[in-house]
Every structure is written in structure tokens, then in C-alpha cells.
Design a protein that fits this description.
This protein has two domains: 72 residues, Winged helix-like DNA-binding domain superfamily/Winged helix DNA-binding domain (Arc Repressor Mutant, subunit A), CATH 1.10.10; 159 residues, Beta-Lactamase (2-Layer Sandwich). Helices cover 44% and strands 20% of the residues. The chain is built from ten helices and eight strands. The strands form two sheets. Strands 5-4-3-8-7-6 form a six-stranded antiparallel sheet, with helices on both faces. Strands 1-2 form a two-stranded antiparallel ribbon. Helix 6 packs antiparallel against helix 9 and helix 7 packs across helix 8. The protein is elongated.
């Protein structure tokens, strides 16, 4: 076979990877569920071909199928892969020193989350390993919209409502309802003008001071602002008011 002929032939492996990636990209926050017909129409292939790709993606946990409703959604393996990918983000590496200093100052668990388009996802946790009792927050955990960090993302991403307006004004959110007995306060982290993460202090309802002007709130905002500054944001108003 000539070189020209070889170049003109399709590369089935490359095409398979591209089609599989394309199928995963069809799922969005606005449309998290798709039927086989919907996937087929978007992929531009035959129904049999689309079904073959869907079965392969299901076998490796990248797609999930609900037979009762005949719809596909992204599978649990996506979260694991996303967490692994996030581990390489610059913000997670840079945040380490800032979070460790906050743990030393406050002696409570510090959590960093990013938003994956659906909800806040925990990407880094630092705590004091010398404590007798520790609150364990698992990396990769998805946080509800009602969590302190979920509210930060809602407030600084254009959300409306009196509570979100207060969060924007104070640069701090609080929540004591996600897990009984556990409380958290959270502050935004920016890169340039973009909200990229939320940093939180997590502890018991007795140990976490949710007052915006208290020491914990002030130190958390200062730490989030310092991380923002290192990431390139130099006008974080929420921390400027604490001077």
C-alpha cells in the first residue's frame, strides 16, 4: 500500500475515541439525560453504532442507563476522572500552603471546592491530624446547593435573593443544615475576575463561629483573598473591608 493510500484510509481507533468523547460531551447541566434516539441524532451515526458506543461506555462506568425511563446519564466514573483531573489544577497546588496556615491558626478542617457545572466538588481537604476527634470530608464529594460552598458559587455567579445578596456583601456564607451537628462557613476564591473556587472552614456547630465579623470569618476571608491574589486577583473587596 502506498503512503498516499494509507493516509486516505480512516483511522478507526481515533474515530472511536472521538465519537466516545463526543457522546459524553452531549450531556450538559441543562440536559443531563438523553435517550438513545437523542444520542444517535447528535452523533450522526446509525442507531446500532450509537448503541454499541453507549454499551462500551456503560461497561467502564462512563455512562449509566435507566431502563425504566430509557435514558442515559453520565456514570460514576466521570466523577473519579474529574477529581483526578482537578488534582492537577494549579489552584489546588497553590492553595496548599494557604490552607495549612489556616488550619494552624483555627485548628479546624479547611476544605477547597470547585464547581463542575452541576455542583461544588471537594478537591482538597486539610485538617489537624493531631486532634483527638477529626471531621473527615472526602475529596471528590459533591456538595448540595444549600451547603456553605454551594451558596458561595450561587451568590458570586449571578444568583438572586436576599441571602445571596448578603453573601456577596459580606464575602462569606454559612450553613449548619447539611449534616446534623456540623457547621461550615465559606468564602470565594477568584482568579482574575472569575470565581474559581470556594474555601470553607468545617467543624461542629459549637466550634464554628458563623458571625461575619468574628475571627474565623475574618481569617477565612483573608486566606481566600491571599489565594486569590496569588492567582492574579488583586482587588478582592470582601477582604479589603477587614483591614
Amino acid at each position: 500500500m502506498s503512503d498516499a493510500a494509507a493516509r486516505s484510509e480512516p483511522a478507526p481507533i481515533h474515530q472511536s475515541v472521538e465519537r466516545a468523547a463526543a457522546m459524553l460531551s452531549f450531556f450538559t447541566v441543562d440536559q443531563p439525560e438523553l435517550t438513545l434516539a437523542g444520542l444517535t441524532a447528535r452523533l450522526g451515526a446509525s442507531k446500532a453504532t450509537t448503541h454499541r458506543y453507549a454499551m462500551a461506555l456503560r461497561r467502564v462506568g462512563l455512562l449509566r442507563y435507566d431502563p425504566a425511563r430509557a435514558v442515559y446519564t453520565l456514570g460514576p466514573r466521570i466523577v473519579e476522572l474529574a477529581t483526578t483531573a482537578l488534582a492537577g489544577l494549579r489552584i489546588i497546588k497553590i492553595a496548599g500552603a494557604h490552607m495549612e496556615r489556616l488550619v494552624s491558626a483555627i485548628n479546624e478542617t479547611v476544605v477547597l471546592s470547585v464547581h463542575d457545572g452541576e455542583s461544588a466538588v471537594v478537591v482538597r481537604v486539610d485538617d489537624n491530624t493531631d486532634r483527638l476527634v477529626r471531621i473527615n470530608v472526602r475529596t471528590g464529594s459533591r456538595l448540595p446547593h444549600t451547603s456553605a460552598q454551594g451558596k458561595v458559587f450561587a451568590a458570586f455567579s449571578g444568583g438572586r435573593g436576599a441571602e445571596l445578596e448578603r453573601i456577596r456583601a459580606r464575602g462569606l456564607s454559612a450553613n449548619a443544615m447539611v449534616v446534623e451537628g456540623i457547621c461550615a462557613i465559606a468564602a470565594p476564591v477568584f482568579q482574575g475576575d472569575d470565581l474559581v473556587a470556594a474555601m470553607a472552614l468545617v467543624g461542629t456547630t459549637a466550634s464554628i463561629d458563623t458571625e461575619p465579623d468574628g475571627q474565623m470569618g475574618r481569617l477565612l476571608r483573608e486566606t481566600a483573598a491571599a489565594l486569590s491574589n496569588e492567582l492574579g486577583f488583586v482587588n478582592f473587596k470582601g477582604a479589603a473591608n477587614d483591614g
